[in-house]
UniProtKB/TrEMBL annotation:
Belongs to the spermidine/spermine synthase family. The active site is at 180 (proton acceptor). It comes from Elliptochloris bilobata. Residues 23-262 form the PABS domain. Pfam families: Spermine_synt_N (PF17284), Spermine_synth (PF01564). One of its GO terms (molecular function) is spermidine synthase activity. Its EC number is 2.5.1.16. InterPro entries: PABS, PABS_CS, SAM-dependent_MTases_sf, Spermi_synthase, Spermidine_synt_N, Spermidine_synt_N_sf. SUPFAM superfamilies: S-adenosyl-L-methionine-dependent methyltransferases. The keyword Aminoacyl-tRNA synthetase does not apply. Gene3D superfamilies: Spermidine synthase, tetramerisation domain, Vaccinia Virus protein VP39. The keyword Transferase applies. One of its GO terms (biological process) is alkaloid metabolic process. This is spermidine synthase.
Amino acid sequence: MAATENAKPTPGTAAEGMGVAKGGWFTELSTMWPGQGLSLKVDEVLFQDRSKFQDVCVVKSGAFGTVLLLDGVIQCTERDEFSYQEMITHLPLCALENEATAVLVVGGGDGGVLREVSRHRGVEQIHIAEIDAMVPEVAKKFFPEMALGFQDPRVRVEITDGIKWVEAAAEGTYDAIIVDSSDPVGPAEVLFQKPFFQAMHRALKPGGVICTQGESLWLHLPIIKELAAMCHEVFVGGSVSYAYTTIPTYPSGQIGFMICSKANAEGPPLDPRTPRRPAPEAAISGYPPLRYYSSELHSASFVLPAFARKELGSSLTL
């Protein structure tokens, strides 16, 4: 992608997107996808402020319901959030050889991943390290169906830098670490760098798994290629794989996940393409049913188009 190869991506604002078109439309602009932008008709601006870290905005859209924008980029919408939240969570948790008991979520302040992790009844500890205190508060007010996970008594919320939390964790603390980050711009940039992945590898139990937001095959293949090569260096003896989901309000309508497992002396590396437990049911009354993830889709999501397999194949172990 030319813009990211020649210039460092820079954060934007919701106001910039509102100013592109007249008549109450918002256009998602970013140096991460130059020359294009998804536009939504905005019925109402529900919230707009700047936190210590980023521009935070919530708008009401007739097409996609309530929409969360961070630095002018769509993070989730009421209509399609489940396709991302379910896949980034259940791909790793349903693939583990043994059911997870300790799970860490890095980022994910909107609560969607927490909701999905809390469906897994065997999990005893759910930690979330979110750097921006404004995001969970906004989610609880404007996205109550996503923020359900905050109500789970197993959840421990830490408003802190995710990389510092992971670095401070004892070796072998977590069965799974799920990184629900925004794009590698602003506060999320460090979550795509090698020191963070090395820290996650250390914090995992043997045979444990990480699943991180892995950008778009259509727009960010060079970034994904670098990420996969770096994971190949970090997760020696384990596995490195890539899966994806479809979601209409993310750039190009598709987003992927880098899924890596730590070596396990007791057996071969984890093959995350095979689900080892069924799709979880709601752990708490009032949860919505699963609307995207299934065991069949789990395996299918790892099948990459030929152009992507050609570019990533040397770094992927599966």
